[in-house]
Amino acid sequence: MKVVLLIASIIFLSACDQKNKYTVSYIERSAPKFIAAENNPGGQTTVANQTQPSFQLPAANLADELKPNFHAGKALANQPWVKAPTVTFARDGLGPVYNARTCLMCHIKGGKGFIPNNNETPVRGTLVRLSKVLEQQDLSVHSELIKQAGVIPHPMYGDQIQGQSVSLAHQLRHSQKPGTIKHDVPPEAYVHINWIEKTFTYPDQHQVSLRKPELDFKYLGYGPLGDDTQFSLRVAPTIHGMGLLGLIAEQDLIALADAKDKNNDGISGRVNQVWDVEKQATVVGRFGLKSNKPSLAMIVGGAFTNDVGITNSLAPKQPCTELQTACLKIPNGNDKQGVELPDNLLELVINFNRDLAPVQRRNSQDVSVLAGRELFYQVGCNQCHNPRFVTQKSDTAPHLSEQVIWPYSDLLLHDMGPELADGRPDYLATGSEWRTAPLWGIGLLHKVNGSKVFLHDGRARSIEEAILWHGGEANQAKAQFIQFEKLDRDDLINFVNSL
Amino acid sequence: MKFIKLAACITSASLLMACGGDDDNNSSVPAINMEKAQLVVNTNAAIAYAAYTDSVETAKALKAALATFKADPSTQNLTAAKTAWLVSREPYGQTEVYRFRNSPVDALDVEGDLNAWPLGEALIDYVNTGNDGDDFDNDQIGVTAHGFGDDITATIDVTNAEASNTIIGNTAIAIDDTLLAKGLAAEDEHDVISGYHAIEFLLWGQDLNTANQSTTDGTDRDEAVNATAAGGQRPVSDFVPGITADYDANELSHRRHKYLEVVVDKLIADLEAVQAEWATGDENNYRASFTTLTNEADAKTKLTEILNGMGTLSEGELAGERMQIAFASNSQEDEHSCFSDNTHRDIWLNAEGVSNSFFGDYAGYDSDLNGSDDVITNAVDGYGISDYLTEVGLTEVAAKTFAALAITKAGYAAIDTSARDGVPFDVLIQNPTENSSVAITIKALNQQSRLIQDAADQLGLGTVVESDASGCNTENPTSTEGC
């Protein structure tokens, strides 16, 4: 084994020497020596890769006595919620408006969601966030709202389009002629996508087709959206390894941040500051595509209410706005706590999500993968896709405690340029900033559930397309990638796919 | 003879021990006996055909009972229709061991249409709601303040029946096969409005009885809606035409009969589709390919399929999803047949299906609902996994599995007896102790699934009990708030 390693490193070292002439504004960097720990992105939580890999397995080192709770949480994330009222009182309360009737219907097997490839079907497993354009006076008039919500939600639609509702007319839309049944509570919209294709040509004349989504609202349940509305299309992200990310020390994130780019490398990296309902305070954000959620609890609680319509103590209001009066009148599934999902069950789901394990890397010793690894560091991908962290000590989740993890993200906000911008600020995040996407498990997305789209809105159909969409702070790294020979580009992509 | 068997047993046990540390060494695994494997798959297919045939027949009998009830909507005929539904569950419950193995019921994608729950009952017909739009309200049946043991007369507020936001209530909705087909075949999962449980809901209504309940002040829906008496309380008047003796197509009573008709027709059609795949004499159907063993690897695949159905139903589906979730969370909605209070039979029949596959026998079904099979027209007495294990020398695991199945049987029989004595599953789950027959059955099913996996291991087959299959740790039935 050692011999093979040695040979491999000789090969990639010599390969690197040739590469220098193809790079632009090359800054001296090189990859650290490969260590075996890189094969286990989640440290001791890492689960083995299987023929049918899954992002919904419990951490490999999860104590046996915690497993029943993991499965209980999974059942709550996986079993369908139904319209209230039913005899099934612990499972009712869906909606009134919602995106999906279970968590795992979008985060299928813990993996990435789907987005339609054509205009025929409305989006599922993908949602649209929206808000009102911020005017100067809003900052004073709505200061409390902005502090807590991060945005000014659309007065009629709220901050998210719920494309489904418990209305009979919606539930039976495939069998009844439109208009046969009157909506009691209409779904907010049927959102379709138009894909705009363009061709990118490398210096070596190799071509790649790139597509960009355009929103097409085929049905609006509550009137026009208005011109001063901002939209952001998001495909459901993967949900594994989130407990580990939650245990990265705040000071580690702040240490990586370089808001004013003092080190002059063209990369800033900012910490978002967001509202935490549990703490009733503004704290560092680390979850969500714009780092707009501070904790796993907040992201699970928020998603239960906004995506499924199952209220809980962290997000106790039904997903209806004040103006959606019919929505507010629909029977709910509240228990005596006044919510649809009591705290003990919510905690089960949060801990289920917390304990979802990263999967072992594949082919890390392939010659091409090792060469790609060198290039990854050489062009500076690692500056944002920060490879390694050590999690903090945790008494509540000892299996996640002090683990060496390899998420390949700094969880910070970076300006990704105008092409990727959604133009919708969220707390401190600007309209062109996004949180660095963790890369662990990225090569397994397709095998996990069949989805194989990348970036926040699923526009990229391959790692290569995703790289080519990078802009802003990533321009310099991308420019080097573009100048590579095809074989080198493939090496880099192979490395990313091995994560 | 006994001594020789025992010796063989010891030898194979020590062989296993010797190889215990090395997972890759399969030298102790006997080769598949092709001739005997053929007997196993033949019997397994014969039982499937027999049980699905009985399912079709009893579904047709249900259809006939529903027609009689429509012609004369009397209390007596409603009871007869309910009985026909209960009988139709007897053979079907035994077929569920053919799930989780890519056999026709799953491959044709009809299982969800046949047997899915929880039902979207609030979309189908009126349900109890309070006046202020909150379904947790003190004017609902079951949420009325009462003392221990008080039986509050169940009178459903039929004013809700006029609500236009149900399939029955909205007369603009055509009740036909398109309604069911397109409601379920959409690109995303919809409320369940079809199958056995839709018929069950239409016939029984919601189970909101209060008899023998503990004291409630009417503010806790969880304690108030826990039902104890036998099934839902839909009044027969829901099915009786109004002013004239003839049905007006728009009359809600008529729409209920119509709904029952289209659901039972789809049920029969779906069951017949599955039955046809298991029939003999069609060289292109599933049975033809299932019973053709081309080589040893193929035989292993087929045996794995059989054990997969047995193992996954025992551990993940029945013990976990169907029993422990309801048991540990004391949650009535998680019981399988919650409107009719027939969950004790679902448990019995599912477990019996596993045992059928193991022994290679099918005893028919119970048409008079007294707990013993009396319709034996399609009974099968064949060659099962137990016969195979014994004849290839794996007597120890065969004997252990036999013993485990017996413990399971004692457990589900106790649940059944309790239900017949007036303490149904939804009452049993309100006392989640270690000694409960429910806890004992869950543990027994867990043990039996481990032995099924052992048998698979000793036959050189792969994983047949998915570690991921269950939502629950069935070794510890009382451990968690809910699975």
Count of extended strands of chain B: 2
What class would the helix/strand composition of chain A place it in?
Answer: alpha+beta
First-residue to last-residue Cα separation of chain B: 47 Å
> What overall geometry of chain B do the principal axes of the alpha carbons give?
globular
Give the helices and strands of chain A as they follow along the chain. HHEEHHEHEEEHHEEHHHHEEEEHHHH
Q: What is the averaged pLDDT score of chain B?
A: 78
What is the level-2 CATH architecture name of chain B? Up-down Bundle
Please give the order of strands in the largest beta sheet of chain A: 1-3
Our Rg estimate of chain A from Cα atoms comes to 23 Å
Low-confidence runs of chain A? 1-27
**What is the N-to-C order of secondary-structure elements of chain B (H for helix, E for strand)?**
HHHHHHHHHHHHHEEHHHH
* Count of β-strands of chain A: 12
**Whole-number tally of structural domains of chain B:** 1
Low-confidence stretches of chain B: 1-27, 129-163, 210-214, 216-230
Largest interface: A-B, 54 and 66 residues
Provide structural commentary.
- The complex is a heterodimer of chains A (499) and B (483).
- In chain A, 26% of the residues lie in helices and 13% in strands.
- Chain A has 499 residues and is an alpha+beta fold.
- Chain A folds into 2 domains: 201 residues, no CATH class; 243 residues, no CATH class.
- In chain A, the strands form 6 sheets. Chain A has a two-stranded antiparallel ribbon.
- In chain A, helix 1 crosses helix 11.
- The radius of gyration of chain A is 23 Å and the shape is globular.
- The N terminus of chain A is likely disordered.
- Chain B has 483 residues and is an all-alpha fold.
- Chain B has a two-stranded antiparallel ribbon.
- Chains A and B meet through helix 2 and helix 10 of A and helix 6, helix 7 and helix 12 of B.
